[in-house]
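As the next step, I wrote out a protein sequence along with its fold in C-alpha cell form, included below for the reader:
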Amino acid sequence: MNLDSPAVGVIEVEVAYAKPDRQVILAVTVPEDATVQMAIDASGIKEQFPEIDLEHQKVGIFSRLVTLNQRLQARDRIEIYRPLQADPKAARRERAAKKDEQS
C-alpha cells in the first residue's frame, strides 16, 4: 500500500435507458468521486444505444434531473431520458376530445 497517495474507494451505481421495446439497467463500478458522465461512459450504454445524445437528452438520478457533472453516491441509478414524442398536454386534449366524440 502506498501511503503517499490517498486511496480512492469505489462505489456501485446503475445506468438505465429505456425504449418502448427494450429497457436496460447496467451495474457499474466507478471511483467514489465519479460524475454522472463518467458512469455513463464506463457503462458502455452508448455503444448499445448509439442514438443517445447527451448534448440534447436529459439525465437524472432516481427521477430527479441532474447535470452530467453531478457527483454520484453509492447505489445511485442514473437515468437517461428520451425526448418526448408528443406534447403531454396536447395528447391529453386529443384523448379527451375522442372520448367526448364517442359519448
